[in-house]
Amino acid sequence: MSDILLVEDKDSLRRALRLTLEAAGYAVTEARDAREAGDRIATARYRLVLTDLRLPCGSGFDVLRAAQRASAETPVIVMTAYGSIDEAVQAMKEGAYDFLQKPVDSNHLLLLVERALEQARLRTENILLREEWARRYGFPRIIGESEAIKRAVAETQKVARTAATVLLLGESGTGKELFARAVHHLSERRDGPFVAVNCAAIPETLIESELFGHEKGAFTGAHERRPGKFELASGGTVFLDEVGELPLGAQAKLLRVIEERVVDRVGGRAPVPVDVRIVAATNRDLEEAVAHGEFRGDLFFRLAVFPVRIPPLRERGGDIALLARHFAAKFGRELRGREMSVSDDALRLLCAHRWPGNVRELVNAIERACILADRMVLRADDFAFLQRREEQIEDWREMDLSGSLAEAVERAARWVERRKIGEALRAHEGNKARAAESLGISYKTLLTKIKEHGL
Name one GO biological process term (predicted). Predict the structure, then answer.
């Protein structure tokens, strides 16, 4: 993706602007008129558009509107001749980021471009929660620009303002607790407690006591009355993580909490009223669990008033680089005192990895690489442990076959491709030309594949 689309009909000025931008490290694509600019916007993505307002075959307003139709996140800077300020102001009213007056000052141009790109970067990180809330409550931002994560964020924002029970669906490591906290802190209950419970981590014999509390003498070791998680969360939110692991007895009591807003303490004689909102999460198919008699159907429908599906990382491949840069900067500050970055070869390797552990696995990998690296830039060899992990799969039956058929087939194909290339390189003692010939592919294709697989 080019950084900047430059639209200017005067050849000398266009060339001067391109050289200025390229000298600052930006990749530039040129267009000579509004029609050509529209065609380029329709077929490619740009981080920023810089356009003159007076153009052949249309105007800068046409370019601005085309850019907005393609992506509302792309900033547009317009250039105007002296005496045409009114047009520039009108362009800003229609959504342009800012304007430059000709003759263009190079330093002003670069400063404006840098500011526009930084503002766009912050927008496309999809900050679900306002920054001051994140600082106050101590949780990270939800980062991503893929359609799948944007959809989950939008649904979370809408349901948070209501009192509806929310069921978060997603694989382990996708960030379900982060979304649960978002529901709480965007709701009217934000000043109340947020109590998280991992239902899978509590022994079955203790789960009812943990959730609903117990009276003194209710069982051996119950030396005093103890409130449960629902009482502790009164006025706030209870987050039931891995709710699909609840035993059937606790499911019946949970249903009573939802329907009657009371809890029955273990050993108690009278119900205790509670005022809580329930957010539940699971990585199981609860409908299938209902069909097998492992989960109550009436409870499932009570929990799934508003289901939100959190996408796995394999469905948000475009977010991997964004997440990697964010966490490299974060762990760099924590571990080294300043932000670390990620090289292009490392990003290619990360984007090619299957990430069965989703965002949690990616975060752990970035932190480990930040510890191992001897530079402030993470490179592919800092992630050698990921390659070794893939190499340890000797039998196709050990592969991760989760997700759709297409996703499983893609992972299987990558595994076969990596093994075949590795075997060919070993058979020909590292001679790439002979290895490419034996594989029936071109030398250039082999080099590309070697980079993709980090071989």
Answer: regulation of DNA-templated transcription
- Inter-residue contact 4 to 27 (CB < 8 Å): yes
Residue 302: CATH number of its domain: 3.40.50.300
User: At residue 309, what are phi and psi to the nearest 5 degrees?
Assistant: -95, 120
Read off the pLDDT of each residue in 219-242 and give the average, rounded to a whole number: 89
Q: Is residue 224 situated within a structural domain?
A: yes
Given a cut of 60, whether residue 22 has pLDDT beyond it is yes
DSSP 441: S
140 falls within a domain: no
- The DSSP output letter for 220 is T
Distance CA 299, CA 286 (A): 10
User: Which residues face 273 on adjacent strands?
Assistant: 262
**pLDDT tens digits along 288-322:** 999 999 999 999 999 999 999 999 998 888 899 99
Helix segments in 187-247, DSSP class H: 207-212, 229-232
Distances (CA, A) of 294 to 200, 211, 247, 288: 14, 20, 8, 9
Query: Is residue 380 within 8 Å of 447, Cβ to Cβ?
Result: no
- Given 65, 90, 124, which residue is the final one in a domain? 124
CATH number at residue 414: 1.10.10
Nearest by Cα to 170 from 254, 280, 68, 94: 280
Contact call for residues 323 and 361 (beta carbons, < 8 A): no
Output the pLDDT for position 103.
87
CB atoms < 10 A from the CB of 130, how many?
A: 12
Helix (H, G, I), strand (E, B) or coil at 8: coil
Structural domain containing residue 24: 4-124
The DSSP secondary structure of 93-157, one letter per residue, reads HTT-SEEEESSPPHHHHHHHHHHHHHHHHHHHTT--S-HHHHHHHT-PPP---SHHHHHHHHHHH
**Domain count within the chain:** 4
For the stretch 246-268, pLDDT in tens is: 999 999 999 999 999 999 899 88
- Tell me whether strands 58-59 and 54-55 are parallel, antiparallel or unpaired: antiparallel
Q: Is the pTM of this model over 0.85?
A: no
In a domain, 139, yes or no: no
CA–CA gap between residue 237 and residue 368 (Å, rounded) = 34
Q: How many Å apart are CA 116 and CA 97, to the nearest integer?
A: 7
